[in-house]
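Good morning,

Attaching, inline, the backbone tokens for the sequence recovery test we're adding to the shared suite. The designed sequence is right after.
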């Protein structure tokens, strides 16, 4: 589903992203089928391994979005994962300072950030 959030077209999805090809397929769908500039993806869709930075999964997915110049918003409460990992807390904080990958609790927060 596509929503206009903060004046930006956002493809909102809870599609499971299990590997790089799933990420590219999601980016392609958002861009070519929906003309969206951002993907808002439910945090649960990424699986626990995404939030375990040593797996490299988070970096690989984030890099796909950066390479394709598509914003990625991970939407949902990840406070339990943040509490368990200082490196994850640091990465989320740094990501949220940038313009490509954001972590937000809900879509209304994303809308506010996009209004910016």
């Amino acid at each position: 589903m596509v929503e206009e959030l903060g004046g930006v077209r956002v493809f909102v999805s809870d599609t499971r992203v299990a590997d790089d090809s799933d990420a590219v397929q999601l980016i392609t769908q958002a861009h070519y089928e929906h003309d969206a500039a951002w993907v808002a993806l439910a945090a649960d869709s990424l699986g626990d391994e995404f939030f375990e930075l040593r797996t490299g999964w988070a970096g690989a997915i984030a890099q796909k979005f950066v390479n394709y110049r598509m914003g990625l918003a991970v939407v949902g409460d990840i406070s339990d994962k943040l509490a368990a990992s200082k490196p994850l807390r640091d990465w989320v904080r740094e990501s949220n300072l940038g313009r490509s990958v954001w972590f937000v609790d809900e879509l209304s927060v994303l809308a506010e950030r996009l209004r910016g």
